[in-house]
Design brief:
The chain is an alpha+beta fold and 690 residues long. The chain contains 27 helices and twelve strands.
Length: 690
């Protein structure tokens, strides 16, 4: 189940981007403004011991202005802008070639979809006609059985996932088999911003969301009074469902997500809706056992449905259906987004139309468009260089493992075996998913339905068959996504092509920069195999705690230091974070990543002493820690930061820039930081896990 996979990038951050350009692409080179490591991005008037973030990145923070269209601006957004520049010509060419390209080829599918989105006149003329069949289905909801049928058909066809969603995936406890998981359905807002539902009536963000709902429903043809009533109903339902879901800190614990149930048990917990009928309509059969991902959700959903009239259920389904499809419909639906974006993120500017086209193509045709990207912008030698870097970082991990004094001998032996079994995939899949049978037409909604049915059938066909992982196939691991992700069920990680580029990786850079950027990312992902989530899965990817109780206690004590450190962070003036438990996995991974990267750097320099030389008056150790901190320089709106702290397992960038460094003795030595300095963390508080 995708919920247990750990990723590098925060979910609030833009993730679409492209890797190293091929010669002749015609784009200007990346420079200091684009996060390429540079002393120009430093502020040497600041003492490194007092404010290392400003010392490392103060020049960038002072010089670079956040573009108005970005509520959050840092490495991920910078490379997202790069993807738009690079893929712009690729999409245009695909559009030009769509009519003549072989049917079912990436060029035909991507080009046809792109042309359809860019034809705003046709979209405006079509009005609601493309989703009329979905709205007609809503009218057929007359009782609970017909609601279950609507839910199943909507999930299959790419509509809203209403109330519940079911899908097969690899069994946590048996990584060789698939099992069906049952999870909470979606809400009107994405999971990134669900904290908005915790705001009281009249709060700025919930008020902005209500206005957006009302205005969107009015464009869809409802009068003002009806639109307001539907908006209030939708918010009331979503607040109830949100409150019944696991909070982020618990949702990051695989054990909390694994709750075996029989159909009879589910019917007892959810008496008002027949889960068996839902599974039948999805053609998932009648499994003897399935896994409930939200242990407290079903009773709350049962009470909610029992208290709603069928007319209210239909109104909620209509509103959710319209919200789901507005990006594919008339550009008139874009208008309410401007004010809503302002209230939600602090930015009242929509991305350019070309960027929105690419976003929708990535959501619906992720692997085909990624294939075009890889073919155009990802050199084969870059894949090889990244693989070599993995070996160097893994070597540093292997060398350190025997010296982890807090581990008992049995657990240390098991940890070494798990590390030895670690898998990784670089850049793109060796075997792409075959989309040739999917018909993409000039009707965006028809294309979305066809693609959703293809994905549904592909997943359904996994039932009863041995588990097989589709590499680089999720929204966070597509080859053109700037990210990296560890999956405990694989005991491995995927590094999409997009992140293996300047400014993260540059074959021309000195060792310190590449080790303490790209190498630290790789170490980050490796560490996830040994954090609070990873320790619950063995080297074969099965959920089994392979630690001795004494090791659990020792690790919890170490991790507690990171929780306390994060809980003392003032992320906005007067606002202290309380998200240490929620973010501890990512904070441990950041610490592990930079620790392993620095260790690997020192090992490399010992073998290549000619490389261990100062550059711009900075030693390789200094450049290592500066390169890490500069990468996390960030500017953004308070609203974005508020949701990030509330929902994201990743801490804010400014925290990531310095928090892990404070646990490395070498950091203090490199910059002469001493007791009494602001950056000083006493040795007994330094966490030395991996």
């Amino acid at each position: 189940m995708a919920a247990v996979a750990c990723a590098l990038a925060g979910s609030l951050l833009s993730t679409a981007a492209v890797a190293t350009q091929k010669p002749g692409a015609g784009l200007p080179p990346m420079g200091p403004d684009q996060m390429v490591f540079s002393i120009a991005n430093m502020d040497r008037s600041v003492s490194p011991g007092q404010d290392f973030y400003r010392y490392a990145a103060g020049g960038w923070l002072t010089r670079v202005q956040r573009p108005e269209r970005h509520a959050s601006y840092g490495f991920f957004e910078i490379v997202a802008d790069r993807v738009q520049d690079q893929m712009g010509s690729v999409l245009q060419k695909a559009g030009q070639d769509a009519a003549t390209a072989p049917k079912g080829s990436p060029a035909q599918q991507v080009g046809t979809f792109y042309n359809a989105y860019m034809d705003v006149g046709a979209r405006r003329s079509a009005g609601l006609r493309p989703i009329r069949s979905f709205l007609d289905r809503v009218d057929q909801i007359q009782d609970m059985p017909s609601l279950a049928r609507f839910m199943a058909n909507s999930q299959r066809d790419g509509g809203p996932t209403l109330f519940l969603v079911a899908a097969p995936d690899i069994d946590f406890r048996n990584s060789k088999e698939n099992i069906i998981y049952l999870a909470a359905g979606g809400l009107g807002l994405s999971s990134d911003f669900e904290d908005v539902f915790e705001e009281p009536d009249g709060g700025p963000r919930i008020s902005g969301y209500r206005t957006y709902l009302v205005d969107t429903l009015k464009i869809a043809g409802f009068d003002a009074a009806k639109a307001a009533a539907m908006a209030d109903l939708s918010i009331r339902i979503d607040r109830t469902l949100h409150a019944a879901k696991l909070p982020p800190a618990e949702a990051g614990n695989p054990a909390k997500l694994y709750n075996p149930r029989t159909i009879a048990q589910l019917r007892n917990e959810l008496s008002s809706l027949d889960v068996g009928l839902l599974l039948d309509e999805l053609q998932f059969g009648s499994p003897e056992r399935l896994i409930l991902a939200e242990p407290r959700y079903l009773p709350a959903l049962s009470r909610l449905l029992a208290g709603l009239s069928m007319a209210e259920v239909r109104d909620y389904a209509r509103a959710r259906t319209i919200l789901t499809f507005t990006p594919y419909l008339s550009p008139d639906f874009d208008k309410p987004l401007v004010a809503f974006s302002k209230s939600l993120t602090g930015v009242g500017v929509l991305p350019p139309q070309e960027q929105r086209a690419l976003d929708l193509i990535t959501q619906n045709l992720g692997q085909p468009v990624s294939k075009l990207y890889v073919d155009n912008f990802f050199p084969a030698e870059t894949r090889q260089q990244a693989s070599e870097m993995v070996g160097l970082i893994k070597g540093a991990f292997v060398e350190r493992m025997p010296n982890r004094a807090w581990l008992s001998d049995p657990t240390r032996t098991a940890a070494i075996a798990k590390l030895d079994a670690l898998q990784f995939a670089i850049g793109y899949p060796d075997e792409w998913i075959d989309y040739r049978g999917v018909t993409v037409t000039p009707d965006l909604v028809d294309s979305k339905v066809a693609l959703a049915r293809f994905d549904h059938d592909r997943l359904r066909n996994k039932i009863g068959r041995p588990a097989k992982h589709d590499y680089f196939a999720t929204s966070k691991t597509l080859p053109m996504i700037v990210n990296a992700g560890y999956d405990p069920q694989l005991n491995g990680f995927e590094v999409p092509a997009a992140i293996i580029q300047v400014p993260m990786f540059d074959a021309k850079a000195d060792p310190a920069v590449n080790f303490c950027r790209m190498g630290a990312v790789l170490g980050h992902e490796m560490t996830h195999g040994f954090d609070w989530s990873g320790k619950q899965f063995d080297g074969s990817g099965n959920m089994r705690n392979w630690w001795q109780p004494v090791d659990d206690a020792a690790f919890d004590k170490l991790a507690g230091g990171l929780v306390a450190q994060a809980n003392s962070y003032e992320f906005l003036p007067g606002k202290i974070s309380t998200s240490g438990a929620q973010q501890v996995g990512e904070n441990m991974a950041d610490l592990g990543g930079i620790t392993l990267a620095h260790a690997a750097l020192r090992a490399y320099l010992a073998k290549h002493p000619d490389k261990d030389v100062p550059i711009d008056g900075l030693s390789q150790d200094q450049r290592c820690f500066l390169a890490w901190s500069q990468l996390w320089a960030w500017k953004g709106q308070d609203q974005m930061l508020q949701s990030l702290v509330a929902r994201d397992p990743h801490p804010p960038n400014a925290y990531r820039a310095t928090a892990p460094l404070r646990h490395l003795d070498a950091f203090y030595s490199a910059f002469g930081i001493k007791e009494g300095d602001e950056m000083w963390l006493s040795p007994e508080k330094r966490v030395r896990a991996w």
